[in-house]
Amino acid sequence: MLIFVSVYNCAYLCVLPATLPATFHMEKTSPQTNRFGKIPVRFIKSRDRWQLTIWADGKRKRSFYRSEKEALEKWGKHCRRIKKFGTDSASYSPEDHREFAEAKRLISGVDLRDAARFYLMHHPEDVREATVSDAVEQFIEQQQKRGLSKKHIVGLTSHTEAFAATFGHLSTPEINSNRVLKWLTDLARHQKPRTVWNYHGSLSTFFYWCVRRKLMASSPMDGIARSDLPTIPVRPKGVLSVDQSCAVMAYLNKSDELYVPWHALQLFAGIRVAELNRLTWDSIDLKTETITLVGWREDDEGNLSRVVKTGDDWVLHDLPKNLWQWLKKYKGEGRIAVPGSSTVTRLRTKEFPKLKTPVEKWPQNAMRHTFCTMMISLHGDAVKVCNWSRHTNPRQLYKSYVAKLVSRAEAKRYFSISP
Q1: How many other C-beta atoms can be found within 10 angstroms of the C-beta atom of residue 259?
Q2: What is the mean pLDDT of the chain?
Q3: Local structure of 298: helix, strand or coil
Q4: Which of 75, 200, 268, 413 is the most core-located residue (most Cβ within 10 A)?
Q5: Nearby residues of 159 by Cβ (< 8 Å), 6 or more positions away
Q6: Is 404 exposed, middle or buried (0-12, 13-18, 19+ CB in 10 A)?
Q7: In the chain, which segments carry CATH 1.10.150.130?
Q8: What is the CATH number assigned to the segment(s) 242-414?
Q9: What H or E segment, with its residue span, contains residue 42?
Q10: pLDDT higher than threshold 90 for residue 166
Q11: CATH number, domain 132-228, options 3.40.50.960, 2.60.40.10, 3.50.50.60, 1.10.150.130
């Protein structure tokens, strides 16, 4: 029997037996069409094979099969995968699957994305090789050119060189968070928590500098949480009482006049010690009763040095009247006279404990803390006091500087201490 059969846009002349077997039947199927409304399966006579054509990554991809059924099954499987995983899955080849399976076998239980991130961290394309020792040397050299305070430079140098003493031979990409954390944990065995946090801060500055210099792909400090480090015990903020402050200024007024302005500017203006040590009388206008704090100062050679901790310019208005009484009486020239460490030690351990109202143990940052506490006690407005203390928010002011508040009358008595 001779019949004409049209199979999916292709015509064929077939010769069939006059009597068909009982098992033969024509199945009705509706395979999914491509974007042109056609099924991309056709018979290639020259190859004697059925050809399936699909597109992946913008390229035409052809495969051949012995039977039309096999080609259609492959096409159906392709359509189902596209529907479930999207068109990008069209480019997933058997070779890709074998590579994926092998990778999963090699790192069983590890997410391949995490493995890829780990690889990029340790094998970044644009990272330059450098040992930790070399990187620390370059880092310190650059920090010195920034005009940071000598104390800051000494701290960065001490902390990073101590780290380099252990890991200096390694390249920077070899340093990971576990190595840094173990080093800090070992350090905590013989150092105070505050010291460990200082090392953490210096190393953070160093490693983020390494990232910017393309010496490593990411900072190992990103993998260290606050909870990984020892807790710093909260100490009560120490302040001077009104009577103690009065006794201190009375002693200086009588016995150490040279250092009266240095103490008065802390007690009655709350200026930080580091800023005060760089302050000159040119910044103090006794006529308008204002103090100008410049963020940076340039020397005769054009080198910049930081004056204010934040690097910002400040003009302080409406400071307590008793401050100006002290400054006008002891006005000087050039830099504010700063007592040396031996003088400070003598005053705080020998002279002040002998006062009528003794200061037995001088609290840390006592004068600035006293100023902030008394100002809030007087005004009852933390936001307003932030303009004098130069804090960006009241929370930081209360957290770090304010001790137990006193009555408004007591605060008024404090700001009445005069020569």
Answers
A1: 18
A2: 82
A3: strand
A4: 268
A5: 198, 199, 202, 203
A6: exposed
A7: 132-228
A8: 1.10.443.10
A9: strand 41-44
A10: yes
A11: 1.10.150.130
d(CA 126, CA 85) in angstroms, rounded, equals 33
Taking CA atoms, 339 is separated from 49, 185, 257, 263, 276, in Å, by: 98, 38, 11, 10, 11
Q: Whole-angstrom Cα distance, residue 347 to residue 367?
A: 14
Give long-range contacts, CB 8 A cutoff, 24+ apart: 41-47.
41/8, 41/68, 41/71, 41/72, 41/75, 42/8, 42/9, 42/10, 43/10, 43/12, 43/68
Task: Provide the whole-model pTM.
Answer: 0.55
Residues, the chain: 419
Nearest Cα neighbor of 358 from 187, 243, 191, 277 is 243
Q: Which of 145-154, 224-233, 365-374 has the lowest mean pLDDT?
A: 145-154
Confidence of residue 5 (pLDDT cuts 50, 70, 90): very low
Instruction: Check pLDDT > 50 for residue 21.
Output: no
Residue keyed to tokens 């100006």: 324
What values do phi and psi take at 3, rounded to 5? -130, 160
Outline which parts of the chain fall under CATH 1.10.443.10: 242-414
Residue 301 — φ and ψ, nearest 5°?
-95, 5
- How far is C-alpha 370 from the geometric centre of its chain's CA atoms? 32
Q: Taking the CA atoms of the chain, what radius of gyration do you get in angstroms? A: 39
Q: Please state the rounded mean pLDDT for residues 144-171.
A: 89
367-414: pLDDT as tens digits: 989 999 999 999 888 888 888 888 777 877 777 777 788 899 999 999
First to last CA, the chain: 129
Residue 259 has which token pair?
A: 């250092």
Q: Which of 361, 357, 337, 339 is nearest to 348 (CA)?
A: 361
What is the C-alpha separation between 319 and 21, in angstroms, rounded? 111
